[in-house]
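Apologies for my clumsy wording, but can you show me some protein sequence, whichever is easiest, together with the matching structure tokens, please?
=====
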Amino acid sequence: MSSLTSMPNSIPFLDLVTPHVELERELSEVFRKALRTAGFIGGPMVEEFEKAFAAFCGTNYAVGVSSGTDALRFALMACGVKPGDVVVTVPNTFIATTEAISQAGALPEFVDIDERTYNMDPDELEVYLADRCTRDSSGRLISQRSGRPVTAVVPVHLYGQTADMDPILELAQHYGLTVVEDACQAHGAEYFSRRQNRWVKAGSMGAAAAFSFYPGKNLGACGEGGAVTTSDVILAARIKMLRDHGQAKKYYHEVEGYNGRLDAIQAGLLHVKLQHLAEWNYRRRDRAAEYKRLFDSMVSPIHAPYEPSWSRAVYHLYVVRVDEREALMSFLKDQGIGAGIHYPIPLHMQNAYHALGYAAGDFPVTERVASEIVSLPMYPQLQADQQRYVAEMILKFQHARMSELAVTR
């Protein structure tokens, strides 16, 4: 590895400025179009983006909504999740996943993750369904923990990599559960379905899927936004009503709904960016491969991301596992390198979910991973020399720590 004696500029964790500067003319035209037509809510810009995003995801429909959280909440409700139901997910995710479940009136219950992919472990899901649930007299699947009916599973495609969906879908089919994908970090990620013998996109495998367009996502708005993808025309129609006060048409309310619409300006901006998403994802994969090459060349205890043969990840985040995380992050900050933690406290240990009654030790893989993960700089504009500097500084830190340990022995 060649040496960089210095890095003249700091390396941010995320660069949101460059892509907007590069697309400034096209993005500005969206705003001008909205001003000229006064098309701010709904209309052609939203419909055109929805059609394009559905095609990108390999689904028949996409419904634009106000956020990824609303996308998951509306998807669950449209799929028939009712107050009092249980929805199974993982504790290693952002709280929006469980907020959407709770706000749909259901109770989140957890299964542990695969230590390599950080996504839902199908074996743990099977144990939960087979050993921790029973059938009532009507044949409904009942959680032994809460006594409530289990009706849905939400696998989270975390960090830009899909969960292993074939076994999850098979279990859901066997137990009569609905699968709703949380694809909020997985725009364009692909999964090789052994059942279908082909690559399929994140967002096209469950009954429905939720996407977030928060600015830092692979496809990010200039503000808030989200979408639900599905190939079910009835689900799509229900979600359109839920996002718009339950209206089938203006002032005719079939259900009590929400104000969860996607602004036309955001839809127009997203449509412009969508045309560049495949290239941006390609660059992310290329940058991930460069990180792997650098770390493979180092004698280091760092654990780089694992990508199974059935996955084509899009690296929304580049997450490694290390010892002495806090010391490393402090060192990187001193060297001008941005880093983050996603996510430091598992959901079952958050104060917000104290009432669920979980305790430390309930999900050992998640808890172990949460104490070791660090997210390194990752974005399409990241340069190879910047990555080399990141790797060298990590190596420098580790050599210094080993020297300190040798002195104290």
Q: What stands out?
A: The chain has two domains: 21-272, 277-408. Confidence is low (pLDDT under 50) at residues 1-5. The longest helix spans residues 264-296.
